[in-house]
Amino acid sequence: MSRPVRVDFIADVVCPWCALGSVALEQAITNLHGEIVVQLTYKPFELNPDMPAQGEQATQHMMRKYGRTAEEVASRNAMTIGRGREIGFHFDLEKRTHFYNTFDAHRLLLWATRFGLQRDLKTALFQAYFTQGENPSDHETLARLAADVGLDSTLAREVLATDQYAHEVRELERFNQQLGISSVPAMVLNGHRLVAGSQSPEFYEQLLRQEAAEFFEP
Fold this sequence. Notes:
- By secondary structure, the protein is of the alpha+beta class.
- Helices cover 52% and strands 14% of the residues.
- It has helices at residues 16-31, 58-66, 70-87, 103-112, 118-130, 139-148, 153-161, 166-178, 201-215, and strands at 3-11, 36-44, 56-57, 98-99, 186-189, 193-196.
- The termini are close together.
């Protein structure tokens, strides 16, 4: 009998460690297929909620926000690219030139849950931003990515043109802050176990097995 585990994965679409954690978690879920049923939902977190529409140049942003030198930024980028290569995710951080506001992307991700396509859209957003260097705050880009994963682009544009899901995104962000989550990625299993940081597929497999064993009722 399959054993259910509910996972809330808190992440931002411009966070490289969130992309790494998401890819690793999705691989772990695939490896556990038939053994454990994982109910995965992505929850919103904005790294830069006050980011202007035009965004900020990536290296300058990292230097300003974290007090790093250009050399330190380049070193961390190289480490990120290497981590991605290990699990089959391609970072092209020369194309990823800017950090952008992600509020509308989170609204669209919440809308996509209605159709069971949130996970597909999240994957598409990570690839579009980190591999193709696209702007996840641009409405036409978001509508196209929605269509690429099987969502209705006209409906997506309607959501983006209004304030639909804005209240819900802010409420979820507030709830996560109340849990003490101040950095991402983070994940909450079955509403009680908080796991911080980006981990390996093997780590996630072990964690999911442990959680399933604790909550399994024959």
